[in-house]
Request: fold
Amino acid sequence: MTRPVCWAATVAASLALLGCTAPTPAEPPWVAQARGVAAAVPPKLLNVLRDEIDRGGPEGAIEVCREQAPKMAKAASEQSGWSVRRVSLRNRNPKAVPDAWERAALESFDRRAAAREPATQLELADTVQENGQRVQRYIRALPVAELCVSCHGQPQDLKPAVSAKLKALYPDDHGVGYRVGDIRGAITLRRPVP
Ligand code: HEC
Reply:
């Protein structure tokens, strides 16, 4: 079971303040749809990454991640009608900078992971007002697994060939220094309320 999303928590908290007990409000159907889109992309990327690492080591897989990850996000966007991308508080791709809503979500994920919530279940969904438009937003944490540390781990633990390639492609790389279980970033979806 996934965690209740934030408005549910807010409504439940307000009701509790009023002295009422009420069941958690039902989740709007678009949240499950967004969750499905967000859940489909990372395993696909992981499979490609695994194959490439087996074939050419992590240094050989860097280019694949660089090309395939944005391509897969674009394909998911075109198929689903949601705009899909990856972001991080310590981004590698210079474009993977979170906006204010995503930053607040990522910071809350770090706090929740520190409080021992399972990182694989960290998500938030909300409908927000942006530039006069109502927008649906969904974000899900991407935790660091064993495989990830070959390219996102402690700088001194990276293979020299990996460090050299990352330095060449991402001179301003902040995406290193992670341990298994940390939150590396998130997959994030948005669309105007249909
Ligand atoms: C073979 C090396 C490699 C491995 C293994 C790898 N990554 Fe990455 N990762 C990259 C590269 C390269 C980028 C930048 C891609 C781009 O240019 O969009 C990246 C970017 C990301 C981003 C987007 C945000 C940013 O900082 O640009 C996230 C999130 C991410 N990786 C998570 C993971 C997770 C989680 C794993 C393990 C499941 C993982 N990565 C494994 C190389 C790797």
Q: What stands out?
A: The longest strand covers residues 133-143. The chain has five helices and four strands.
